[in-house]
Structure formats: C-alpha cells, structure tokens
Write a structure and sequence with these properties.
The complex is a heterotetramer of chains A (317), B (222), C (483) and D (669). Chain A is built from 11 helices and 1 strand, in the order ααβααααααααα. Chain A has 317 residues and is an all-alpha fold. Chain A has one domain. Chain A is globular, with a radius of gyration of 19 Å. Chain C has a domain of 210 residues. The two termini of chain C are 34 Å apart. By secondary structure, chain D is mainly α. Chain D contains 25 helices and 5 strands. In chain D, a hairpin with a 2-residue loop joins strand 1 and strand 2. The chains are: A mainly alpha (317), B mainly alpha (222), C mainly alpha (483), D mainly alpha (669). Chains in contact: A-D, B-C, B-D, C-D. Chains B and C meet through helix 4, helix 5, helix 6 and helix 7 of B and helix 5, helix 6, helix 8 and helix 9 of C.
Chain lengths: 317, 222, 483, 669
C-alpha cells in the first residue's frame, strides 16, 4: 500500500459521497420522464439533504440512544462498502479489509441497525417495517452471496479487487454462469434498494411501504444521513454490479491517468444503469409483500443455478 | 426271563409300579377324602419299597428312612389333612380346570417323556432297580400336573406332597438313599411345610371364606 | 471361640429367644445386637480366611472359601442394616395398627432364623444340606410375607410357597441325580454330596446324568433366583410383604439361590465341559433381563416395580456368570454385591416413603424431597445408582459385563443395552415425579432410620470409583474358583 | 524436585471445583457466603483452567494414570492440544458465568443454594474430566456425571410439571446417547478388550466396523449436542434451567459433545471415509435450518436462544462434515481451514450464547417474565444488559466485526474452495449446502433482531416493567467479561487462529498459522490475500471513523439541535404498546413462507366471536414422526409381555412345568 494508492482510495470515497445523490436524482428524473411527469431537478437530492441538515431533529419520546446512533452507523457501513468496491481502480488499500463475504456482512450490519432503530419507538409501523425489511433481507442476502460465489469461483477468489482483475484484465471468455448471476443480482439489488417491484421509494401509503415505514420517525440530520446512506447503497450496488459484470475500464494500477480515464466511463455506465433501473421500475407494478419471497426465491434459485452451471460447464478438471 | 432278577428287585419294581398307578388314581380322583387316602396309600407303598430296598442292600439308614416315611407320609400328614378337611368344612367335590380324561391322556404323555428322559440314566445304572428312576420322574411329573389342574388349595397341597413322594422314591430305590442327615432335613422340611400349610388354610379361609384358589388371582400385571 | 460357630449361634439363639421374649420392649435391640454380633463374627471370619485360606468346620460338613465368605459378609452386613432399619419402621407399622405385638414377635424370630438358614446355605459343604437350608429359608419367609394377613399378602405368600416349593422339589430331584452320579465315582461313602469331594472328581462324573441334574437344579433354584418364566412369585412376595423383608429377599435370598446354582455349575462344567451350563444360564439371563425390563413400565406399586428391577438385575448377573471366565465372573460377583447394597438401600427409602405417604401406589406418592429431603435424595440417588448411572458402582460392574459381552458374545450386547435403556426410561420416569414436586403429608411418630440408606449408597459410590486391592484380590480368587 | 505439569494443574483444578462444591454443603442455607465467596472462587479456578489450556496449546501431549477406577482399568488421563483448546473454552466461559452466578443466585430460589453450588461445581469438574479422560471407563463416568449434575441443575425448580418433564426427557436422551457412545467404544476396541484410548488408536478397523463406530458416536454425541432428530430435549431443558446453568449447558456442555465427535472422528477411529463427512454435513444442514427456523418463531426468550443453539451446533456439524470429507481425500490444507472454522465457532458460540443466556437471566430477575409477549422497552430500564446483549446479538447474527462472523466467514471460505473434490456428486452438493448455510446465517439475523427488538426496544408491553432494575455489579462483571471475549474473538482472528492452530496440526498434520502469520496479526488471509482476506480492525476503524467524522461534520457545519415530541401516530389516535408487533406477529412471515416445516395449531377469530382472540402453537414435527411411534411400540410390547403375569397360579405352575419339559427334551450337552 502506497501513497498514491491511498490517494486513489480517498478519491474513490469522495467520489462516492459526492456522486451517490446525483445517481438517485438521475434515476428519479428518468422515471419522471418515462412516466411523462415533469421531472424534479437533477440536483434535488442535494437540496433535500441540505434542508434536512438544517432542520431540527424531532425525537419521539420513546426513543433510546440506539435510535440516535443508528443513522450514523448505517452511514458508516455504506461508506465502507463504497470504499471496498472498486469503482475506478482495483488498487485500493482498503480492499483487503473486507472481501465480498464481508461486504455482504456490511450490508447486513446496516440492515440490522436500521431495523432495530425502527422497532425502538414502538409504533406499529416501525415494527411492521422492520419485520418486512428483515424478510426481504434474509431472502436477498443468501442470493447475493450465491451471486458472489459464482464470480468468486471464476476468479478463485472472494476479494472484489481480484475478481475485477480476473474478469477485466485477462483474456475475454464468455461465462454463461454470469448470465444467471447477473439476473439474480439485478433482482437482489432491486429488493435491497427498496425499489419497485418489491418496495416503492415514492410511496407513503403505510400498508405497502417497507423502507419508508422504518424511517417514519426520523427527522432532521438523522433522516438526511439515512437518505444519503440509501443513495450510497444504490451507488455501491451499481458499482458492484458494474464491477462484477461490466468491469472493463476500471484502472488496474494506480496510474493517475488511468483513474481520470475511468471516471467518465464510470459516469456513463452509471447513467445507463440508472436509466435501465428507471425503465424496470416503470414497466413493473409493485407486488404484494408476500409475492416478494417468490421474487427473491427466484433470484436465489437463479444464483444457485449459476453456481451449478459454473461447475458443470466451465470447470476443466 | 424273570429268574435272572432277584425277588427283591422284582418287588421294588412292583411297588414302584403301584406308586405310579396310585399317582394316576390321584389324578383321576374327584373327591377330597379319597384323595388323601390315596396319598396315604402311596406313602405306605413307598415305605414298603424302602424296606425292601433296605433288606436287599442291607443299608441300615434305609430302615430309618422307611420308618420316617411311614410315620410322616402314611400317618401324620394324612391325619393332619383329614383334620383340616373336617375343621374347615371343605366341600367334598374337587373341581378340575381340565376334565379328567384329558388329564389322563396328558399324564400318559408325561410318563412316556419321563421314561425316555430317564432311559440313558437307567442304562448307566448298575443298581438292580434301574427302572424306578423313570417311574419316580413320572410320579413327580404327574403330581406336578395335578397341582396345575386342581383349583382347590388342599388337592394342590396333596399334589405337592405326592411330588415329595416321587422324589423320595427316586432317592431310596434308585440311589439307595441319600445320607441320613439330608433325609432327616428333608423330612423336617416337609413336616414344617405341612404345618405352615395348615396355618395357611385357616388364614385363607378367614380371608376368602373358601379354599378355592381362584379367588387368589388379584395380583397381576396384565 | 470360633468365629464361624459364633456366627451361626447368634441368629439361632436370638431367634429362639425372640420367639419367647419377642414382645418385650428390648426385643428390637436384641434383634439389632444379634445381627451386629453376626456381622462382627462374619468380619472376623473373613479376616481369617483372607489370612489363612479356605477351611473346613465340623469334619467336612461346612466349608468356607473366598467365594462364600464374601457372600457371608455381605449377607451379615445387609442383615445388620436391615435390622437397624426395621426397628423404627416396625414401630410405625404397629402404631398405624397394621401389626399386632404377636406378629412383631413372629417377625423378629423368623428374621433371625431366616438369617441363620441363609448363612447355613452359604457355608455348607453338603449339597443336600444346601437344599434343606434353601427350603428352610423359603419356609421362614413365607409367614413373613403374609405378615399383614391382608388378602393380597396371603395370595402372595401362597404363590410364593407353592411355586418355590415346587421349584425346590425339582432342585431336590437334581440333587438326587447328582448324588446318583457321584455315587458311581465316590462309592457308597457318605461324602458323595460333599462339594469339596465332588470338585476333585468332577471330571469323572457322568455327563448325561450331570446335564439332566443341572437342568433340574437350574429350574429349581432358578425359581428362587427369579429367572423368567419362573419368576412369577417374586413381584407379589416383594410387594406384599413388609419392606424389611422385601429388602432382604431381593438383597440376599436371590443371591443365595444364585450361589447354589453357581456351585452346581462348577460341577456341571467339570463333567460336561464348558458351554452347556453357561449357555443355559446366558439364555435364561437374557430372557429374564428383557422380560423384566418391559414389565417395569406397567407397574403402579413402587415395591412391585423394584421387585421387577431385582429380576432384571438377577438376569444380568446370571448372564454374566453364564459367560464365564475370570472377568465375567468378577463382574458378576461385583454386580451381586452392588445390587444387594443398592437395592436394599432403595427398599429402605421406599419403606419410609410409603409409610410417610401411607400408600404404595406411585401416583399418590409425590414430593418426597419436600416431605423429607433425606428420603427423597436417598430414593433418587439409589434409583440412579440401580439404573447404572456412574459414578455409582453398579455402572462399574455393568461396564465390565457389557465390555466382556462385546468381546465374546457381541450378538448379545444390543439386547442387553436395549433392555437397560427400556428399564431406565420406565423406572426413572416413575421415580422422578415421586421425588420431585409438591405434596402435603404428615410427620411420622418415629424419626426414620436413614443412616442405612446412605451407608449403603456411599459404599456403592466408593466402589464405583475405587475398588480396594484386597477386595479385588478376593473377588479374583472367587472368580477363579468359578472357572 | 517434581515440577507441576499442566495436566496436574488441570487435575488439581477439577479437585478444587469439587472442594468448592462440597464447601457449599457446609453452610447450605448461607446464600451470602456461597454467592460471594464460593462462586467467585469457582470463577478463579475457571480462569486458571483457561490460562493453563491457553498456555499448553502447542505443547506435546502429557498423560497420567490415577489409582481410582476399575482394577484392570484405572483412570487414564491425557492432555493434548484438542483437550487444551476445549479446556480453554471451558475455563474462560465458566469464569464469566461463575462471576455472574455469584450475583444471580439469591434467597429462596428453588433448591438450597448449597446444593446448587455443589451440583454446579460437580458439573464443571465433570466437564473437565470428560476432556481429560483417556479411557472408556473414565470417559463414561465423567460423561454421565456431567449429565447427572446438569440434570439436577435443570430440575432445580422442580415444582413445575413441565420442568420435571424436561429433566426426564433430558436425562433419558443423555443416557441413551451414552449407551450408544459406549457401544461405539466397544466397536473401536474390536475385541481387543483394551478400553484405553491408546488401545483404540492402535486398532486397525475394517471400513465397515469403522463406519459403525463412527455412526454410533455421531448418534451418541449428537444426542448431547442436539443434532436433529435427537435434539428434542434441548429446547425443553435449556429454558427450564436457571440462566447461568442454561448458559453453561448451551455455551460449554454442547461443546463437550463436539469435542467427543472430533476425538472419535479424527483421533480414535482411524482413517475416515469420505461419506462420513457427507452424513455429518447433511445432518448439520438439516439441524441448522431446523434450529434457526424454530428459533425465529418462538415466543419464549430462552427457547428462542435454545433453538438458536441447535442452529449453531448444526453449523459446527457442517464444518466437521467438510473437514472429514477433505481429510478423507487427503486435502489437508482445506481440511485445516474447515476445522479451524469448527473450533473458532465453538469458541465464538461459547462466548456469545452464554452472554445472551445470562442477559435473559437478568431480564428474568428484573421482570419475572420469560415470554417475549410481555416484555419490551427494557433498554431504558436496564441499559447495561441491553447494550451488552447487543454485542451478543450481532455476533450471533454472524455479522462483522464480531466473533460470529469470523467462523462463518471461514466456513464459507472452506465451502468456496471445495470444488476440486474428486467426486462429481459432492461438487454438485457443496454449492447447495453453501446456499443453505447462507440462508441460515441470514435467518439467524432475523431471529436475533426479533430477540433484541422485542425484549429491549419499543414500548413496555406491561405496566410492571416500569420498575425493572439493571443487573447488579457481579452480574455486570460476568456479562462484560463474556462480551469482551466476543469482541476480542471478533477483532483478533489471526492471533487466535495462531493459537488454536496446534489442534489442526495435531489432528490433520497441517494448519493455517504459517500462511496467516505472513500477513501480520491484523489481517486474516488463510490462503493468500489475493484470494480472500478480512481485516476486522481496519473494518471497525473505517466504520467508527466515518461515524465520528460524519457526526463532527454535521455539528460543525450545521447544528446539534434536538427536541422531543410524541411519536407520529399516522392519524390513528391510539398508539399504545399493544399496537406494536407481538413476538408471534414478528415471525408471521417465516411461519407463512416455511409453513410445511412447522406443525401449527392456529385459531383465528371470526366476526361473531364474543371474545375474539388469535392464538398460534408451533410444535416439533419430529415428536410425531419419531418419538410418539417409538413410545407406542414400547407400550404395546410391554402390554404383550405382561400377559406372562396373569395372576393364576395354575398358569404359573404350567410355565415352570413347560420350561422343565422343554429343557429336558431340547437341552443336550
């Protein structure tokens, strides 16, 4: 680990922090277009965060300290996730600190804290939200793990950096298993980021919401942090998806030019990804909560299938 | 060719046969008092055969045991039993679980078994009365059968004592008697046992006001 | 003065005295003192034998070797503790109006005579006398079983008398056959029934006769041991008699009967060669074990249940001796000892429990821990010990039996373990609710004599963890003697 | 002058425990003396045991022979690395639990405290002896004494019928398990009659008999560990026992069974066959899934934890299965990886599960409530317990950066590198197994959120909870000790693995330590950092840094203003405690998704109910599939045999008559 590596690392984090809300904004804008509504400004999320940070925190009477710490911890987890996932270059000093399994662990940690916080006030909607969130979680987590396993088997490694190295900078091979894994990953990331068809970030109809129900009691800077964390999560997942399935263009070494070259490429890929997400959200309708298990179960099965395909077709023993 | 066998041996075999016959008779007997009498008769025959054995072998302690037998089996025990029957007003009829003919048939089967079991031994035996061991065994088994089939206390006891007779027959005529001390002990046990039984009858009668042992089937697990 | 003669005198004389003075206030103490004397003499005798080998008494009529001397000590010891236990127990019975003074007199005298007959049976050298003593032991206990004069007790006593009488008669036939066989070797001399002589010539005894004779002896004495299917008298007699008698019956009498079989087995093995007698005993043992184990779960009466457990253990011991060989015989003797100590301890505890709650029906006995923790713990620990729970000694002997069986008769091991498992489930499932839980019960006029229970249990515990070397040597000698 | 060997030290420790226990009988009613003097002493001894074990790791085995035991088989003792690591576990866990117990046992709690003290310390001593035993007899004695003492501890409060039933079930299964273990030992001696473990090692078993021995051991130890289907005692016994005892049983006693499995599978029985591993793997997976599913639907906090223990044991069994398979195929490096996962999970689980059970103990004392439906909001009243429990919860959910995650990570790693097994079927099975493990881990999170959220968060569901009090100083000390163990195991995996590596070296001949040490103490990279790596410290640092930084930035550029107000009621005017999720409600999705896995009896209110109520009862399938039929069969058999005792004397005479005749006709020399 050297200075330039550290620089690249910090740059990646800074970029994530800065660009995540933008991505959210972009997705919302695309959705508005596709649904032929007048779109909010691209920078709307930033105004939003600014406003929330300025507002006072209104804390419910029953709230304990855990309720107040949770947003920060969730935020921290997401920052760590963004730090690990190679968005621009694979030479990240933090990368060894957590491989893909640990990455899943990070998301799990964040989920646990947000759900506990939701139960803390003791309103019916809080516990309802956390229950549903955990439901989605325990189905999505193994699916994600399986997806990662598939890629890990290809590269004989669970460290994201190595995976990307293998996929991006070796001779180009078509991996059928990745197709399965890719679809499964899409499903999972939709569910994890509280998107249609599993959840609807725009709704405030209590009976249908999951994520929104959990953060119902949050306000002020806490809410801001949670929103920011949410967009960071979206950003992290997108980067992960890109890194796993479209890794081309991510700089191998820590050459500064490579980094600079990688930035516009990343921006382009994210833009496309965001647009596709918007498309998915538009063409699908939100499903009943108890259809979600089927949806995620499918993802899980696809991922396992990918794993089997990987072992069947692509291992040369 | 009977001549080969000395008279004493013939007598002993005869008595043994009689004892077997009496055993069958007891098996067939339907009334209490005749049963006891038959038992007494059996004891008498036993004593007689013992005496013959004593004469033929000249073992003195056999006289003693003959006397004991006479005293106990032929006199004392029957007398006790008679008294009991009178004192307890036992009904004269003796019911049997299985009807008499069947019992007899089974008895004959037992005799065959007994003889066959005893055969190898009697062949080994060099005593003149080799056959009696089989008879003794048969008597024991018939007495056993009687105990099984009779439903009243007294006949059961008679059967028990008849079994002792069979054993005694085996002891005296087949092996010319056990050591004296043993025989005395055995006799003592039989006596005490009979007395205890007498005590029992009264207790049972007080509790169940009858000597029918079919009342005594309460202790069970099924 | 000779320890041996003293040992036989104590019970005989005190028995006679008690028949006369049995109703005096000091009678119970006399009972205890006599038993104590017997025990001390037995201990002295043991020391003597351990020091200076086997010996004869009264010409050759009595013979004491390391096999029977240890049984003598055991018998005397359990006899002592039982007499200690029965003091307050019988007083309570009397004050509950279950027993009258004359019956108590009968009880005490018969108890001493019973001890006497057992000691004779153990020490005699004459197989005929052995038979006589066994029969006498039956006769002395018959009246004790029917002591309460309730219909049930009478029925039990009647069955006990008839079945054992018939059984013992068969044993007599066996003895006659044995004599018949011996006479042909030893001639007309009076010592054709003396075990010591028979052992010397056991090789020449006629196999056919010996096999028949052993069958009769096995069925005969086996009835008294309680081998299935000859066991039917045993649960009745144990359940209906007074508890001290149940304790000595299953703790001692069964041992004595088994001892008789063992003496005969030695001769049979010598004549017929190993296998025949052993296989018969193993067959009976296994069958008994399994049958008894399955009986256990149906019991409602606590004493009856433990009677069945005695049958079960007798089956196990018979199996062990049937296997033969130094280790198995050692294990069998050890298990005999453990079972006597543990089972009598259990019966003591059960006796107090039934007196406190006034019933023998297990559903109605609850919360012994609350009534009297000592009794509760006594029963609980005793039960666990008898079920073969380490660190109690029963496990030690069972371990040796099982391991030996695994080595030589692997096919039998699953059966043994199945039976032991079933027995565990049955007994423990019934005892635990008796000991634990809530209850309302009244205190007794006389404090229970709880020392015997814990004396026995601590012995069992000690032997489970550590068997003193001299005991080991002693057992080994006895085992070797059994071949 | 003879020096004090570690094995002597452990032996002395066992005796010391016994002595402490007996001292309890000296003043059976003096709670103060027992709680404040004896239990701390026991904790001290435990600490020593732990230290001895820790220091011994890596040494060469020591043996000893005692005078006690059977004449021809005195107690053999042996201290090797496997023993040492479990002794370490026992020592450190029991130290914390004993300190806690010093504050926990008080006046009028069921049995006399002196008796409790005796049973508790006999329990500890016997567990230590189990680890030390080196022959079948010593092992069985220690094993059964352990079962016995724990049985009496479980039935401490035997006033209640269900506790008695639980105790009965527990001891019965323990005994049957012991019988099967004894059989397995017997098979392993293969007729040599030498029941010392050395003798068993010496035997060369045929594959068939080796398999028999192994399967018997699996059943026997599984019955103690709580593997499906012999798990039924566990969810009954753990809740029944006083909380320190539950903690001891779940945290430590179950591990003795794991110790036994390792001892037999890798030390005594000889070369394993590959399919043993598959069996263990399958059983483990079923157990883990079963355990976690049932733990999510429990409404009693201790039952929930008990089922979660079953789940963890299942995961451990999975690890053992992998190890066996790799070992059988001679892939020792991977075997070492899997075994490290097993050992690590044993240590981790001992830490966090004891911690959680002790927390439930404090809650129980503070509220007299075990049912989740009557708890809630306790974080306000008992913050210490709550925050320490949170550590346990996170570890138990297998989340970084705490202990649970490390072992799960290692386990998944060993799955990931398993392709390459020379057996196509295995290669197909392994990913599915990995998927199940992942599912289990995620579900554990669900169960733990339910556990913590419903007990400590939200509004108080009962008025009585208002006057709940926090744990006392002794209890706090014990909790803190265990929590710190959990954290240490979480953040210093490389160091710990460096120590326990001695075990894998002893059993498999290789280990991870060399490769792990290359990359420094802060990084865990069992193969190589390129392939897989995990740095909990950096991990933790990053999160903490970003939390603090975020907080500072917000305060610096904006403000820290805050005001309180009632919770938003969504326009409904009543938002009482009753409006929160109940325990049943929270697990409703699980019940709905995995419906066939449960045996449920539900009652739904209808429109016309005068008193409408909703109730759901979840039962264990295995009762009705396995145990009820067996019980029926036994009953029928005994009914059949009982006809022997018909009560009619004539029939009895007939029996003996027939026996005689049969023998006369059949028996021939």
């Amino acid at each position: 680990m050297n200075f330039s590596g550290l620089l690249a690392q910090l740059f990646a984090i800074a970029l994530a922090l800065a660009a995540a809300p933008l991505l959210t904004g972009w997705v919302n804008q695309c959705r508005a277009w596709l649904q032929s509504r007048s779109a909010p400004p691209l920078l709307q999320p930033y105004y939003m965060l600014h406003k929330l940070f300025n507002k006072d925190v209104v804390l419910a009477h029953g709230a304990s300290d855990l309720f107040r710490f949770a947003p920060f911890i969730v935020f921290g987890c997401m920052v760590l996730a963004c730090a690990i996932i190679p968005s621009l270059s694979t030479d990240l000093p933090f990368a060894p600190s957590a491989d893909t399994i640990a990455l899943v662990g990070v998301f799990g940690l964040a989920r646990i804290f947000i759900s506990l916080a939701a139960m803390d006030i003791g309103t019916s909607f809080g516990s309802l939200g956390s229950r549903r969130e955990m439901l989605v979680g325990f189905l999505a987590e193994p699916a994600l793990l399986m997806v990662i396993f598939t890629t890990a088997l290809i590269s004989q490694s669970t460290s994201v950096a190595t995976i990307v190295e293998t996929l991006a900078h070796r001779e180009f091979i078509i991996y059928p298993s990745l197709a399965f894994a890719g679809i499964a990953f899409t499903f999972v990331s939709l569910a994890e980021n509280a998107r249609v068809p599993v959840d609807n970030p725009a709704t405030h109809l209590e009976l249908t919401m999951i994520h929104e129900a959990m953060v119902l009691e949050y306000s002020g800077r806490h809410l801001a942090l949670i929103e920011w964390a949410a967009s960071l999560k979206l950003y992290a997942y997108s980067c992960l998806g890109l890194a796993l399935f479209f890794p081309w263009g991510i700089a191998a070494g820590d050459s500064f030019l490579g980094l600079l070259a990688a930035v516009p490429l990343l921006a382009f890929k994210l833009a496309v990804g965001g647009f596709l997400l918007a498309v998915i959200e538009t063409v699908n309708a939100k499903m009943r909560i108890f259809r979600a298990p089927e949806f995620l179960g499918t993802a899980f099965l696809l991922a396992v299938l990918g794993l089997l395909v990987r072992l069947l077709l692509e291992t040369r023993v | 060719m009977n001549a080969a066998i000395p008279l004493t041996a013939q007598l002993i075999n005869l008595f043994a046969a009689v004892i077997l016959l009496l055993a069958f008779a007891m098996l067939a007997q339907r009334r209490v008092l005749p049963l006891i009498n038959l038992f007494a008769l059996q004891g008498l025959t036993l004593a007689a055969s013992t005496i013959v054995a004593a004469v033929s072998t000249g073992q003195h302690h056999l006289y003693w045991s003959a006397g004991l037998t006479l005293l106990l089996k032929a006199a004392l025990l029957p007398w006790i039993l008679h008294r009991l029957v009178r004192r307890l007003h036992v009904k004269w009829e003796v019911e049997s679980l299985i009807n008499v003919p069947t019992t007899m048939l089974v008895g004959i089967g037992l005799v065959i078994i007994a003889f066959n079991v005893a055969l190898p031994i009697s062949q080994l035996s060099d005593t003149i009365t080799r056959g009696t061991l089989g008879i003794a065994l048969a008597v024991v088994m018939l007495a056993f059968l009687m105990m099984i089939t009779r439903t009243k206390a007294i006949p059961q006891v008679v059967g028990f004592l008849a079994m002792e007779n069979g054993l005694f027959l085996a002891a005296t005529s087949a092996t010319y008697g056990m050591p004296m001390v043993v025989e005395l002990g055995i006799a003592l046990d039989v006596l005490v046992g009979a007395i205890i039984l007498g005590v029992f009858f009264f207790q049972i009668r007080d509790q169940f006001d009858s000597l029918d042992i079919r009342h005594m089937e309460r202790l069970k697990d099924n | 003065m000779d320890f041996f003669i003293l040992m036989l005198t104590f019970p005989l004389v005190s028995g006679a005295l008690l028949t006369v003075f049995g109703e005096r206030a000091w009678a119970p103490n006399l009972n205890i003192i006599a038993s104590l004397g017997t025990f001390l003499c037995a201990a002295g005798l043991t020391a003597e034998i351990v020091a200076s080998g086997p010996r004869m008494v009264f010409g050759e009529e009595f013979f004491i070797d390391s096999l029977n001397v240890f049984l003598v000590t055991l018998t005397a010891f359990v006899g002592l503790t039982t007499s200690i236990f029965s003091g307050p127990y019988m007083k309570n019975e009397q004050e509950h109006g279950r027993l009258t003074k004359p019956r108590l007199r009968l009880y005490k005298s018969m108890y001493q005579l019973f001890m006497f007959t057992m000691l004779v049976a153990l020490t005699t050298n004459n197989l005929g006398i052995l038979w006589v003593a066994m029969e006498a032991a039956t006769l002395t206990t018959v009246l004790l079983v029917s002591l309460y004069r309730t219909p049930a007790s009478l029925e039990a006593a009647w069955k006990y008398f008839i079945l054992c009488g018939v059984g013992i008669a068969q044993a007599l036939f066996g003895t006659i056959l044995l004599y018949f066989a011996a006479e042909r070797v030893l001639g007309e001399t009076g010592n054709a029934l003396l075990w010591t002589h028979l052992v010397d010539v056991k090789g020449q005894l006629e196999p056919t006769i010996m096999s028949l004779s052993f069958i009769f002896l096995l069925v005969g004495y086996g009835t008294k041991v309680g081998l299935a299917p000859l066991h039917n008298w045993l649960p009745d007699a144990h359940a209906e008699g007074p508890t001290p008698i149940s304790a000595v019956l299953s703790g001692l009498l069964l041992n004595v009967a088994l001892y008789a079989i063992l003496r005969c087995k030695v001769l049979a093995d010598g004549a017929i060669g190993p296998g025949f007698a052993g296989n018969l005993m193993m067959g009976f043992g296994l069958f008994t074990l399994v049958v008894a184990a399955f009986f256990l779960s149906r019991q409602k009466d606590v004493k009856r249940m433990f009677a069945y457990s005695s049958i079960e253990h007798m089956g196990l011991i018979t199996f062990a001796f049937g296997m033969g060989g130094a280790v198995a015989n050692f294990a069998g003797l050890l298990h005999m000892t453990m079972h006597s100590l543990t089972k009598s301890a259990i019966f003591f505890a059960v006796g107090h429990a039934t007196q406190k709650t006034g019933t023998q029906v297990m559903e109605n006995i609850r919360g012994l821990m609350k009534i009297n923790p000592l009794i509760g713990w006594g029963l609980m620990l005793g039960t666990l010990a008898i079920l073969g729970m380490p660190p109690f000694g029963v496990f030690a002997s069972e371990f040796m039996i099982l391991t030996h069986a695994m080595k030589h008769h692997a096919w039998a091991t699953p059966v043994l373990l199945l039976a032991l498992g079933v027995a565990f489930a049955a007994i423990f499932g019934k005892v635990q609710p008796m000991v634990f839980g809530e209850t309302e019960a009244k205190p007794l006029p006389h404090a229970p004599a709880i020392t015997p229970v814990f004396l026995h249990l601590s012995l069992v515990l000690m032997l489970g963890l550590y068997i003193p070397p001299y005991l080991t040597r002693w057992f080994h000698e006895a085992a070797r003697m059994l071949g | 002058m003879p020096t004090l060997l570690p094995i002597d030290a452990l032996l002395i420790a066992a005796c010391a425990w016994l002595a402490v226990g007996l001292a309890g009988l000296a003043a059976p009613a003096n709670t103060r003396f027992i709680a404040r003097t004896l239990f701390p002493l026991g904790a001290l001894v435990g600490l020593l045991v732990g230290i001895v074990g820790l220091c011994f790791l890596g040494e060469s085995p020591e043996t000893a022979v005692l005078v006690i035991g059977l004449p021809d088989l005195p107690f053999h003792l042996r201290l090797d690395n496997l023993t040492a690591v479990f002794a370490m576990l026992l020592g450190f866990a029991s130290a914390g639990i004993s300190v806690y117990a010093a504050g926990y046992f008080r006046q009028g709690g069921g049995a006399a405290p002196g008796l409790l003290c005796l049973e508790y310390h006999v329990f500890l001593a016997s567990m230590l002896m189990v680890l030390l035993a080196d022959d079948a007899y010593a092992f069985m004695v220690a094993w059964e004494s352990m079962a016995l003492s724990s049985f009496f501890l479980v039935t401490t409060d035997h006033k209640h019928g269900e506790i008695r039933r639980a105790g009965y079930l527990y001891l019965l299964l323990a005994h049957l398990g012991a019988i099967s273990i004894l059989l397995s030992f017997g098979v392993m001696t293969s007729g040599s009659g030498d029941y010392s473990f050395a003798g068993m090692r010496a035997q060369e078993l045929s594959p068939f008999w080796a398999s028999v021995a192994y399967l018997l051991a699996l059943v026997g130890f599984g019955a103690k560990a709580g593997l499906v289907p012999v798990h039924v005692w566990l969810p009954e016994a753990h809740p029944a026992a006083p909380s320190p005892v539950s903690a001891m049983m779940s945290g430590v006693m179950l591990k003795t069974a794991i110790y036994g499995l390792l001892r037999v599978g890798f030390d005594l029985v000889g070369e394993p066959l590959w399919w043993w591993g598959v069996v263990a793997l399958g059983v483990g997976l079923v157990t883990a899934l079963f355990g976690v599913l049932y733990s999510t639907v429990q409404s009693d906090m201790k039952r929930l934890l008990a089922y979660s223990s079953i789940e963890n044991i299942g995961l451990i069994a999975v690890g053992i299965g992998l190890t066996l398979t790799f070992h059988a195929y001679g892939m020792e490096a991977l075997a070492a990886l899997a075994m490290t996962a097993v050992l690590y999970h044993c240590l981790a689980h001992a830490g966090f599960k004891s911690l959680l059970f002790l927390c439930t103990g404090s809650v129980l004392h503070a509220t007299k409530e075990r049912s989740l439906g009557k708890l809630g909001g306790l974080i306000h009243r008992m913050p210490w317990v709550a925050w320490l429990a949170l550590a346990g919860v996170i570890a138990s959910a297998g989340l970084p950066p705490l202990s649970g995650f490390v072992s799960e990570w290692l386990l998944l790693q060993s799955f990931l590198f398993s392709p390459g097994l020379p057996h196509p079927w295995l290669n197909m099975i392994v990913p599915v197994a990995a998927a199940v493990v992942a599912l289990v881990a995620a579900l554990a999170g669900f169960a733990m959120v339910k556990f913590f959220g419903i007990i400590f968060l939200g509004q108080m569901r009962e008025e009585s909870l208002k006057d709940a009090h926090d744990a006392g100083p002794w209890e706090k000390a014990g909790l803190v000790w265990l929590a710190s163990l959990t954290v240490l195991l979480g953040v210093l995996p490389a160091t710990v693995i460096g120590r326990i590596d001695a075990v894998t070296h002893q059993l498999l001949g290789t280990g991870l330590a060399e490769r792990v040490r290359e990359h420094g103490w802060w990084m865990l990279a069992p193969i190589s950092p390129e392939r897989a790596s995990y740095e909990p410290l950096v991990f933790l640092a990053t999160i903490v840094a970003s939390v603090l930084l975020g907080r500072w930035v917000v305060r610096r550029f904006y403000h820290g203003r805050m005001r309180r107000s009632p919770a938003w009621d969504c326009g409904y005017f009543f938002q009482g405690p009753r409006a929160q999720d109940t325990a049943e409600g929270f697990s409703q999705p699980i019940r709905r998704i995995f419906e066939p896995m449960f045996r449920m009896q539900r009652h739904f209110p209808t429109a016309r109910d005068a008193k409408p109520y909703y109730s759901v009862k979840v039962e264990d399938h295995f009762w009705h599939w396995l145990y009820v039929p067996i019980a029926r069969a036994a009953k029928a058999t005994s009914a059949l045999i009982a006809t022997l005792q018909g009560g009619r004397i004539a029939i009895y005479l007939l029996y003996s008559f027939l026996t005689l005749i049969l023998l006369l006709l059949v028996a021939r020399p």
